[in-house]
Design brief:
By secondary structure, the chain is α+β, with helices and mostly antiparallel strands. Helices cover 51% and strands 17% of the residues. It has helices at residues 28-32, 100-110, 129-144, 150-171, 175-178, 181-196, 203-210, 214-225, 229-247, 252-258, 264-275, 279-297, and strands at 23-27, 38-42, 47-55, 58-62, 65-69, 73-77, 83-87, 92-99, 121-124. A five-stranded antiparallel sheet has the order 1-8-3-6-9. The protein has a four-stranded antiparallel sheet with strand order 2-7-4-5, with no helix packed on it. A hairpin with a 2-residue loop joins strand 4 and strand 5. Helix 6 (181-196) crosses helix 8 and helix 9 crosses helix 12. The longest helix is centred in the middle third of the chain and has 22 residues, at 150-171.
Amino acid sequence: MGGEIPVFKLYGEQGHWVTPDLLHYESIAQRSSLHDWEIKPHRHSDFYQLLYVQRGQVELNIEGNVSVVEEPVLQWVTPLCVHGFRFSQDVRGCVLTLATPLVSRFELAMNMPLAFGSSSLSLELGEDKAFLDTLFTSLEREYGHHASGRELALEAWVNLLLTWVQRRSIEQHAFSELRSKGHAYFSRFSSMVERHYHEQWPVQKYAATLGISVVRLNGICHQLGQQTALQFIHQRLLLEAKRNLIYTAMTIAQVSDSLGFSEPAYFSRFFRRLTGCSPKAFREAGVGQLSDGVQGAQ
């Protein structure tokens, strides 16, 4: 492969997701059919993906290792992993994209890091295909409708899916091989941010709690997240701000206070610096897009 490996939010897109959901669901055909059934090698800076091929042939290119699979397969892709796919036109399946906070919450609830988190992982389904078909069908249904309790239901299905992958990867004795010390620190840091982002801990406090230096923590974040520790924290704050602005009736002052800002003006400057627009403008645009999506689904 010549040239620099592109880093995408979603393949072929330079912008952020339309709404600040913690996950994105789409069929394989939705995106690959637009690119002649080929997703060229690329990587994502800050989220995980699960490729689920239920039927058809797929050529997997994971960090330059190419394999052709004709049986149902579930492929786990980590942040910054270079990956590409070529599909047969009769392919059936989907791609589930997970934001880092969603994975961190799973690790926190399990009280253990992902056994498969630091590397790509390909799993054959065997007798569990019917179970996974039901699970992904339920995810698709819930994702496409904005019914009450949608976020809770989506996270429940995702947790069930990650639990299945966790168990299968441990069965394959992958835990010790796939974990690295740097990833273990990054996983702990991510979980700590999930618990304390609204308290706005300084980077020094995170590093001290982890028992490493700020320089070491920033190095790990650069290596595994392509950003500094402070940028990682700020992105989590921003994600929660976006979600509150779109999905709740909280005032901007209430959102500011819930995220630990001393005053709304400081929150507004923070939000504008990271997004290029004010919280009010983001809310108006996001709610409008969400309303259009709900109407279109009816």
